[in-house]
């Protein structure tokens, strides 16, 4: 009986480990792939940063024309700063909310998250402008973030309360006492038309009475004229 030698065993191992054509094998996950939770935070943050950069570029262009002799560089610097601020703010806010439980945070926690994100964004902006601007920038943007989130919470709560009351009439500037016009409901408009119709009917009745009075006077005048005429039979 023949025994396999070392070369045969090595060849068999190579054949077993060699990928065969037509057989799809699941490729191992790359080491640099990010979790979907991180991508859900970074993607919107980059979009916000891009929009912030465009806004900063526009504002910086106008400000550069007024304040600087090189408006292009001024606009570019403003766009970069605004982009970094927007990206840092939105990304840090997303990470904080994700750590606290995105769907379970309270309005107060939203304010805290926005304040923390504002501090991070202000710190990033302060690093760009110089070390002495780090602490003032962090404090200022933390206050701005908290204030903006508080105002958003108030507006959102008001809209939710109005949405829960469908019978509540929507407010409008026409409802103000200083407005020369007034918003009429369907019932008010119907009552107004009914009053106008009654007024027209009353005027028609008065006209009919006047016509009837004129006809009566005409008949009386005709009767009086006929009575004053001499009778030919009596003359004969």
Element pattern in H and E: HHHHHHH
What's the end-to-end separation, in Å? 178 Å
Number of helices: 7
Structural class: mainly alpha
Give a short account of the largest sheet. Answer: none
Mean pLDDT across all residues, rounded?
Answer: 78
Radius of gyration: 44 Å
As a percent range, the share of helical residues equals: over 70%
Number of strands: 0
Low-confidence stretches: 1-5, 22-31
Tell the overall outline.
elongated
Strand content: under 5%
In words, what does this structure look like?
There is one protein chain. With 236 residues, the chain is an all-alpha fold. Among the domains are: 128 residues, no CATH class; 32 residues. The longest helix has 43 residues. The chain is elongated. The N terminus is likely disordered.
Please summarize what this structure is.
By secondary structure, this protein is mainly α.
């Amino acid at each position: 009986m023949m025994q396999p030698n070392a070369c045969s065993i090595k060849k068999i191992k190579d054949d077993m480990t060699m990928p065969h054509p037509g057989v799809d094998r699941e490729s191992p996950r790359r080491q640099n792939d990010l979790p979907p939770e991180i991508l859900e935070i970074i993607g919107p943050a980059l979009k916000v940063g891009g929009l912030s950069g465009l806004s900063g570029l526009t504002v910086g262009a106008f400000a550069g024309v007024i304040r600087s002799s090189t408006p292009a560089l001024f606009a570019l610097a403003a766009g970069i700063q605004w982009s970094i601020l927007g990206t840092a703010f939105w990304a840090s806010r997303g990470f904080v909310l994700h750590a606290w439980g995105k769907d379970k945070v309270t309005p107060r926690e939203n304010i805290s998250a926005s304040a923390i994100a504002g501090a991070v964004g202000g710190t990033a902006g302060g690093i760009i402008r110089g070390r002495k601007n780090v602490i003032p920038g962090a404090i200022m943007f933390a206050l701005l973030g908290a204030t903006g989130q508080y105002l958003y919470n108030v507006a959102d709560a008001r809209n939710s309360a109005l949405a829960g009351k469908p019978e509540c009439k929507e407010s409008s500037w026409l409802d103000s006492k200083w407005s020369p016009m007034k918003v009429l409901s369907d019932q008010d408009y119907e009552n107004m038309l009914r009053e106008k119709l009654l007024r027209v009917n009353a005027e028609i009745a008065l006209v009919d009475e006047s016509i009837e009075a004129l006809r009566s006077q005409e008949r009386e005048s005709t009767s009086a004229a006929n009575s004053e005429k001499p009778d030919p039979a009596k003359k004969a």
